[in-house]
Amino acid sequence: MHSDARPPLALTLAAIGGLLFLHMPIVLIFLYAFTTEDRSYQFPPPGLTTEWFAVAWNRADIWPPLYLSLRVAALSSGLALVLGTLCAAAMARARFFGRDTISLLVVLPIALPGIITGMSLRSAFAIGDIPFSTFTIVLGHATFCIVIVYNNAVARFRRLGASMLEASADLGANSFQTFRHVILPNLGSALLAGGMLAFALSFDEVIVTTFTAGQQSTLPIWMLNELVRPRQRPVTNVVAIVVFVATFLPILAAYYLTRGAEETAGGGK
Amino acid sequence: MTPAVEFQSVSRHFGAVKAVDRVDLTIAEGSFFAMLGPSGSGKTTCLRLISGFEMPTSGAVRIFGEDMGTVPPNRRHVNTVFQDYALFPHMSVRENVAYGLMVKGVDRRSREARAEEMLALVKLDGFGGRRPAQLSGGQRQRVALARALVNEPRVLLLDEPLGALDLKLREAMQDELKSLQQRLGITFVFVTHDQGEALSMADRVAVFNEGRVAQVGTPEDIYERPATRFVADFVGSSNVLAPAVTEAFGGPRAWASLRPEAIRLAPGGRVRGTVTGARYLGAGTRLEVRTGALPRTPSDHHDGGIAVLVPAGAAVPGVGAEVALDWDAGALHLMGEEP
Lengths: 269, 339
Fold this sequence. Notes:
The complex is a heterodimer.
Chain A: H1 9-32, H2 51-58, H3 63-93, H4 99-111, H5 114-127, H6 134-160, H7 162-170, H8 175-203, H9 207-212, H10 219-228, H11 233-267
Helix pairs in contact in A: 1-11, 2-11, 3-6, 3-8, 3-10, 4-6, 6-8, 7-8, 8-11, 10-11
Chain B: E1 5-14, E2 17-27, E3 32-36, H1 43-51, E4 58-63, E5 66-67, E6 78-81, H2 93-102, H3 108-121, H4 137-149, E7 155-159, H5 167-184, E8 187-192, H6 195-201, E9 204-209, E10 212-217, H7 219-224, H8 229-234, E11 239-241, H9 243-248, E12 256-258, E13 264-265, E14 271-280, E15 284-290, E16 305-311, E17 322-326, E18 333-334
Parallel strand pairs in B: 3-8, 3-9, 6-7, 7-8
Antiparallel strand pairs in B: 1-2, 1-4, 4-5, 9-10, 11-12, 12-18, 13-17, 14-15, 14-17, 15-16
């Protein structure tokens, strides 16, 4: 219900308070990336400087975790794109016994606490005598990345409808041509959005990674370790900004991509 | 001459449901063939058996004498106009029409030129650059038609082609489809639940009921000489007479149909009755007459009431008037039992 009356002052204040509570810590993180004080977080900062960006750039120990995080995020979202799409294609088109159960099993990892996923993967790797490596981190991340891609793809598959695929076959296209010329173009933005969300999720994942990384550290784990040691603290904040940008931009892009697709698909009917 | 499409005792069962049950059909080359029936009667499944999206449980489907067996849809020389048109939303109209040629590997220039020809054929010149979403329902219908014709099929299948159009557009498209079929000379097979559409467009009609073909014939056959009670009921507005009623009307004890326009009001006619309702139709007035001598048959909707069409210009008796009905001896058409 719309009302032209102004909301009560208390409600306005509460809303502002709630938003501040949610977002002030992030603003503070950004602020402390520019502080001149490197041992403790005092407010207000005694002075502002951009030197920490240069310091962070020259710190050799930042680069390997950053590369590892990027590599893991790229590999696990790539793996999720292939497996999630195939899975969605099977689920959207076939009707078979146990289909609903399998659909639930595919989506379950996103609902499962990361600590459970992490523990079970760790013991599975131990039983299988698989040494920890980039590959084990990728596997851990793929469990929840697949769900993201699957959810995006399966919704689009449903909208695609059977008759368009039949029309393609009717006009002489084989399955590969139908996939290449009809399915993929219609699925494209959903896959891109799913892939970006998966990338963002993987890039800042901590819990599953702790269980599956062994001695390596990804960027979030490096940050966690860094917070314990009071040395060049603002560098951690600089890295936090990098993580923020690397995860927030894909999510924002994914939001706009799927929103635009809905508009064009809706315009057809 | 080899028929374009031939069904030989074709059945398609889905579990216990007999969607199509022992159907025999022959569709001559160059004909405009309608499959008419209520929803769930098996007509669409028959169309999909021709296009290859369904495989027969038993029996054989032949296209130009060749047993289709398990030949997939993309290797059959038939094309379909889908009920919802199924246009590709991400392609332009021109690309949609050229799709069949593209997947065959025809180069871009020739396929686009051909697509423009097809668009001209369906009177959509100049629409090639648009997206399907920018077209009206009638225009999308034409694009679907052009797209299906670009591969030069020998049989064109149309699934409820006019179902989504409004009345005015539907009538215009009926004429246009008919003239297009005559110009191209290819076989059109179309599915519809609209008896008017089937009778006005097709030169042969198959009436489907519960997975079986109740009757195949020319529109005149179907309308004037319905083979079964179902056909008489479904096609048009004929009076269907139960055996007892037929007997009372001077015929043998059998199911019969009697068309409203074949009945005239004449003093000293065969049957007397009371007018219980009248509906003005423009070209005439349709009277409901209760012939009181008849027994009510609770199992049937014909409780002795009968529809009579009084042509325009003739005197129309009011509701409650006593009338006498008469008809020519040949007008009472006897029907067989349901198969």
